[in-house]
Write a sequence for this structure.
């Protein structure tokens, strides 16, 4: 009896202190192996008297079962520990930078144009285009800007040899579209325009403009305010305050300048908004009756038009501080979009 | 244009404080761009738009606006002063207007016994505030009245007028004039002048002449207050390249009815500050009388166009404040008479603007239009443009925007500008390639390899000028085949299934921009014909594809059909063949496919080799041939049979040798 107790106690101690699976196997062999101490005791049972054998045999088997369980548990624990240790070796630094796949970049004006088109298309506006090279008729006369009138001086124009000119605004698309399509109509017309002027951080001689036109029987200034307000909100992805104030463009009456709250200072006044708190972003107005007439439409129609510079909006959205960057083709700039 | 705050106070009592006034003007009239503080005054710089130049290049015009906006009373300066002159103007001068279309009205008044000297300080201060240099009390009075009323005036020394005559006529061919500034101008019959019996004494509406200048000895003067044709003045001013305060005002078209008021105003001022005696009479040659126009304003239209309800009484009150007369009122209409000073107002829409801006556009609510829900029609060109951009971006290309202009380099028939900004921008670009080349060179300092593209307009001159959308991409650090793979991918994604490449065939109308490598260049073709080029370019080591985007859009289908995946396994066999160098891969592929038939699912070229171990005039092509049936599992024997057929077909030509 004492032998069994002693064996159990010692075996349990040695199982407990085994450091790895090999040591544990040695302990196992020592007690439960072929020539293990307990194995030998169990083997000796057959030589014992029956009564004793039953008593002792039960105790010996209990010890064997208990030790087997202890071995298994210890073994599982050691195995898990070794697996953990192996995993440890595969540790990586998750803060090290990822390997990037080289994708390209779309131009910020393309991004701004897409956003604009998406917003207006969702409000039912179709997208129209027109030529860069225009006639005097479409660029000026049809838009109620008479020849030799000081109003024409507002548009510094590039002329081509032999007559035609580079359009100074996208407004000719209004006429071209109305000649071919009957109201009610809703369009925007994005495109390149040209101004004969010297450049600096806020002036360019080649610009991207977006024209808008909505014509129906009862279109009002109130409608213009709603559509333009919705556009600003969705373009800048926040509430943007805007205002209309009187301005003059011969192809609209009344005519407006549309300004938005300065996005840099929030309207308090800063160098970007020249301390006014407002930024002019668009010209707009109710289509002049002479423009409808030039496009061959009857006076029953009314509607509004607007035109804004896409560079200006993109500069505000992405905080770009120099308009000349757009056509610089500098990849250090373009790769940021 | 500059305006003195103190001066405006003369006409509007309890004028709002400068800051408040600036905001009011900006929101209801025209933008106040700047307020400058002077000793005892503020100078407003107001951006008056061309339509309001006729009445608002003047302090009185601005004062009328303020009175209407702030609902204050406008106080006009009085011209009902007694004129003290004993002599008659008609005794001192005779006015003859020869060119009546160019001069619709000419008024003149004599002032005698003037004492020429400096003008009083208050007047000098006002001129200076508005950016004018004081000269003497006579000239200053004339300028003062111009800034006050908008009517340019001129004063002649009566004794210097030869033959006591003022003749308004076109200049003669060889005539010249020296102006008050001492500049000499050669004149011609397109330029209108004021002449005496002998010679021009002023360039009409632009500048006075030296010969009849007011000097310290001047005793008797003739004041001119005239109305000249805007076009005539504009053309003359452009021709001699001289713009003055007077010419700018005439160019915009002034009200002839203003001439008399300004004349009397100047005469009374000269009596006051130069001790002159103004004649009681005036000369007035008014050939084309201008009468006020009447406009019928539909109040429903007023409210419908603005989208706000404005009461009839409010509309009428605003118009009256602005100088309009209400001739008749009915329930739904106002019959309005516009003053002749408001030549910009002739339509109901013009009146609606007047009412709308004074009420204030901020009063108009934002209301979405009640329009029918017709979905917008897709713009196919822009849709495909976006798609192409997305594909190129996905394969690593960055989009650039270049200017439409180029310098005169290797120019063929280019579209030329009449007034370029510089020699570098003399022509419209006939191709996007030069721009991309410049971009690549510029970025080479910062980037080892460059992949860029642009979609933009190019311009060509045949019989007419043509503009066309072009798609061009440039890539450095790689070869022809890499870019060809990208073109294939792009066209496949656009649903253009039938694409092939041909050796480049020069055509006579080809652009003279010879940038391409003569050998490493291909024409890209679809069923609709050639759509562009692909190849290496010589100036820098780069490959380029250049596609006519308009043609590309005609070829796209957007069709994309799924091909079922075979349930049976594929068998891959490799095949290497030695062929003469100039045999095209396409030819080999065609032979393989024809001989193999339907069970060849795909043939994949995985190597082209020329060099060591291969004879000089030969190249080695290596293919994976993928065999697969849609109906059964192919046995090895079946595949071998077809593979042998393929080899036999290839070796029909004795110079072709399949390697075993």
């Amino acid at each position: 009896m004492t032998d069994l107790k002693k064996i159990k106690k010692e075996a349990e101690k040695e199982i407990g202190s085994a450091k790895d699976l090999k040591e544990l196997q040695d302990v196992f062999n020592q007690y439960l192996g072929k020539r293990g101490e307990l194995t030998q005791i169990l083997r000796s049972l057959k030589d014992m008297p029956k009564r004793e054998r039953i008593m002792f045999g039960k105790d010996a088997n209990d010890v064997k079962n208990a030790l087997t369980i202890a071995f298994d548990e210890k073994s599982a624990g050691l195995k898990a520990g070794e697996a953990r240790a192996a995993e440890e070796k595969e540790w990586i630094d998750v803060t090290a930078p990822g390997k990037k796949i080289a994708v390209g970049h779309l131009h910020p004006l393309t991004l701004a144009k897409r956003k604009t088109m998406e917003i207006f298309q969702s409000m039912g506006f179709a997208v129209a285009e027109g030529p860069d090279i225009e006639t005097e008729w479409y660029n000026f006369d049809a838009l109620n800007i008479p020849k030799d009138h000081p109003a024409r001086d507002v548009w510094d124009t590039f002329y081509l040899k032999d007559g035609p000119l580079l359009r100074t605004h996208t407004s000719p698309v209004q006429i071209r579209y109305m000649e071919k399509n009957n109201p009610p109509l809703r369009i925007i017309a994005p495109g390149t325009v040209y101004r004969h002027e010297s450049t600096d951080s806020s002036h360019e001689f080649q610009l991207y403009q977006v024209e808008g036109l909505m014509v129906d029987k009862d279109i009002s200034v109130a409608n213009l305010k709603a559509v333009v307000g919705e556009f600003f909100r969705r373009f800048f992805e926040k509430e943007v305050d805007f205002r209309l104030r009187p301005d003059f463009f011969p192809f609209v009456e009344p005519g407006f300048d549309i300004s938005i709250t300065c996005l840099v200072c929030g309207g308090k006044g800063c160098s970007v908004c020249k301390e006014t708190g407002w930024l002019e972003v668009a010209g707009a107005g109710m289509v002049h009756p002479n423009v409808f007439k030039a496009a061959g439409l009857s006076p029953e129609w009314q509607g509004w038009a607007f035109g804004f510079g896409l560079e200006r909006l993109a500069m505000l959205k992405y905080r770009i501080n120099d308009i000349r960057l757009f056509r610089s083709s500098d990849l250090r700039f373009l790769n940021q979009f | 244009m500059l305006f003195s705050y103190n001066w405006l106070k003369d006409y509007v009592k309890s004028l709002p404080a400068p800051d408040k006034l600036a905001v009011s003007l900006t929101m209801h009239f025209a933008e106040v761009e700047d307020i400058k503080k002077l000793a005892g005054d503020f100078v407003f710089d107001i951006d008056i738009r061309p339509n309001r130049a006729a009445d608002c290049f003047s302090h009185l015009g601005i004062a009328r606006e303020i009175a209407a906006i702030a609902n204050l009373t406008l106080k006009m300066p009085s011209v009902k002063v007694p004129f003290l002159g004993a002599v008659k103007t008609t005794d001192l001068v005779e006015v003859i207007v020869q060119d009546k279309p160019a001069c619709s009205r000419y008024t003149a008044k004599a002032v005698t016994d003037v004492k020429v000297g400096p003008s009083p300080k208050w007047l000098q201060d006002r001129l200076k505030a508005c950016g004018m240099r004081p000269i003497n009390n006579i000239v200053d009075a004339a300028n003062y009245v111009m800034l006050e009323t908008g009517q340019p005036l001129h004063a002649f020394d009566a004794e210097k007028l030869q033959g006591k005559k003022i003749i308004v006529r076109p200049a003669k061919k060889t005539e010249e004039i020296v102006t008050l500034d001492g500049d000499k101008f050669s004149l011609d019959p397109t330029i209108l002048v004021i002449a005496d019996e002998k010679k021009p004494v002023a360039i009409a509406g632009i500048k006075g002449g030296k010969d009849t200048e007011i000097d310290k000895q001047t005793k008797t003067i003739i004041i001119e207050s005239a109305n000249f044709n805007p076009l005539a003045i504009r053309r003359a001013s452009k021709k001699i390249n001289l713009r003055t305060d007077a010419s700018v005002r005439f160019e915009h078209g002034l009200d002839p009815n203003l001439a008399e008021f300004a004349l009397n105003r100047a005469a009374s001022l000269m009596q006051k500050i130069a001790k002159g005696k103004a004649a009681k009479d005036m000369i007035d040659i008014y050939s084309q009388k201008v009468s006020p126009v009447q406009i019928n304003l539909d109040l429903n239209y007023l409210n419908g166009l603005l989208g706000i309800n404005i009461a009839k009484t409010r509309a009428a009150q605003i118009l009256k404040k602005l100088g309009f007369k209400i001739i008749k009122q009915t329930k739904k209409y106002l019959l309005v008479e516009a003053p002749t000073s408001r030549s910009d107002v002739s339509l109901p829409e013009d009146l609606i603007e007047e009412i709308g801006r004074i009420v204030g556009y901020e009063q108009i609510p934002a209301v979405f239009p009640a329009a029918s829900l017709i979905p917008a029609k897709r713009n196919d060109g822009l849709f495909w443009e976006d798609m192409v951009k997305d594909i190129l971006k996905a394969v690593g290309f960055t989009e650039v925007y270049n200017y439409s202009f180029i310098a005169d380099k290797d120019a063929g028939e280019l579209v030329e500008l009449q007034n370029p900004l510089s020699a570098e921008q003399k022509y419209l670009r006939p191709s996007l390639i030069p721009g991309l080349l410049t971009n690549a060179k510029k970025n080479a300092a910062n980037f080892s390899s460059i992949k860029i593209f642009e979609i933009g307009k190019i311009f060509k001159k045949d019989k007419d000028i043509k503009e066309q959308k072009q798609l061009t991409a440039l890539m450095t650090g790689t070869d022809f085949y890499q870019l060809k793979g990208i073109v294939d991918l792009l066209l496949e994604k656009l649903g253009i299934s039938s694409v092939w490449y041909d050796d480049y065939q020069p055509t006579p109308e080809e652009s003279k921009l010879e940038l391409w490598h003569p050998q490493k260049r291909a024409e890209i073709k679809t069923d609709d014909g050639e759509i562009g080029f692909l190849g290496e370019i010589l100036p820098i080591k780069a490959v380029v594809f250049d596609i006519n985007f308009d043609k590309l859009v005609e070829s796209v289908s957007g069709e994309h059909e799924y091909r079922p995946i075979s349930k049976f396994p594929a068998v891959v066999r490799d095949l290497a063949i030695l062929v003469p160098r100039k045999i095209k891969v396409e030819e080999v592929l065609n032979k393989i496919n024809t001989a193999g038939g339907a069970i060849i699912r795909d043939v994949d070229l995985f190597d082209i080799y020329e060099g060591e171990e291969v004879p000089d005039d030969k190249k080695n092509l290596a293919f994976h041939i993928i065999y697969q049936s849609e109906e059964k599992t192919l046995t090895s024997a079946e595949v071998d049979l077809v593979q042998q057929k393929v080899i036999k077909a290839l070796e029909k030509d004795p110079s072709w040798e399949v390697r075993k």
